[in-house]
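Re-running the complex after MR caught last week's input typo. The corrected sequence lines follow. Everything else is unchanged.
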Amino acid sequence: MSGDLVWVNGSFAGRIDPTDRGLMLGDGVFDTLVAFNRKPFAGERHLARLADHATAIGIALDPAKARAGWTAVLAEAKSDHVILRTTVTRGVTGRGLWPKTVPEPTIVVSATPWNKELVARPVRLVTSSIVRNAGSPTSRLKTIGYLDNIFAAREAAEKNADDALLLNAAGKVACTTIANVFALSGGRLLTPPTTDGVLAGIVRGLILEAASALGMEASERSLMPSDLFAADEVFLTNSVRLVSRARSLDEKPLGGRAPERVAGLLSVIAEKIRAEHSFVLEVA
Amino acid sequence: MSGDLVWVNGSFAGRIDPTDRGLMLGDGVFDTLVAFNRKPFAGERHLARLADHATAIGIALDPAKARAGWTAVLAEAKSDHVILRTTVTRGVTGRGLWPKTVPEPTIVVSATPWNKELVARPVRLVTSSIVRNAGSPTSRLKTIGYLDNIFAAREAAEKNADDALLLNAAGKVACTTIANVFALSGGRLLTPPTTDGVLAGIVRGLILEAASALGMEASERSLMPSDLFAADEVFLTNSVRLVSRARSLDEKPLGGRAPERVAGLLSVIAEKIRAEHSFVLEVA
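Corrected-run output:
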């Protein structure tokens, strides 16, 4: 067993049925957030998205049950700052892909220590050979089915890179294995629309709002890899690492021409964390 | 808990770690077969494919361990004829998509009663809106990540059909949510190549061999939906239902011009089951 603190269906002693559809069929969704000082950062946004994505695949999640898991796990966590993962599966049914009955969902909440070293670390990217399938709604949902991303992460590891960039069938930038992608050019911020096969990350949303607050023009627009090379900066967002500059793609340099603008966007996030969590994010 | 007989990692009392990568990330592969008279049909082919697909995603499966699960479950099964499902996950690791350490795989074997009524039942198909992603190796592997197929199965259920046909991004026929697709025209048998986003089903392979034995020309070739409408017969293969004729696609009729040829192919499978399992498959 892993050493993680894990809450399952209302209890730290809860068990997973080995025929749970999450394990058998990847039939579920999840969320990852960071709790600073035992309080979920952007918790309401994360919970709303989790419930939305559950609904999208036909699971009726009671957000109060997930919240109860958060409360229990955060009270018992060994660290004040933890990565909180919430997994919701359709539960247990008989055979058949689309079940005739509606089972009780399975909810798993687990915590692992968060490490500030993860933030703002520049990232070397490689282009994955795996095509991101914009032709499926699962490309816009945070589902359990992460094997494409695992394949891409293996490619990155084999090429001694930090992360892999996934393109869709039209060759447009979708995301990395764990993050949304932004390009910053002449003070204008661009990120691919969800229709390109993109999950609407919570920090992606916060950054789009932060840009407005800083008077930057920000919009969703398809990006080709050539747009990344032409950008003043390319950066990645996710809920654990917040904001990281991408410094190369396939060993060719990216950005480096406006690091202060990326730092300014991260500062807006850091200020929100300070105000809401009394936690000061020190970034190198 | 489900009423299934379930063996996990060497024991009927084995438990699933709630942070198992199968449940968290869909990081695993599986196999489904039918055991007739408590003996796996085409068991060696199934086991070899399962080990191959595990290898493809970087899991070193010891086939002897999966076989031990089969033996244990088949000895205890309440029915002589069962659907045997084997699930292999990467197991438990720390966070990170591509793990730095190689954990012990998790193996789950479960049995549910097989029902002969599943065989040879004509199927009404609808075309799914979900695009099959031929641009990922996962489209050719039997991985846990079945949510695209679950979405497609929901579409079929909502349209009162039996199954959904998935096309790839080029509009070519890939498969249904649970089966391979064959078209039979003028005594010539065609099925899409795996490069179109197709899992090489065990019964698909047996049918290609049976065709040769019956003196039919059989080959892998891309198929468009129009090829299905032009065919004398369209039929589906999988390990539980064996062979089923498709009788309509989006409410337009398919095939019906050479049912005896489809029956002849199924007879080759039935004869193999009779010879190897002393089980007579009676097909209406």
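None of the earlier attempt is carried over here. Helices of chain A lie at 21-25, 43-56, 63-76, 147-158, 202-213, 225-230, 259-277. Chain A touches chain B through 59 residues (CB under 8 Å).
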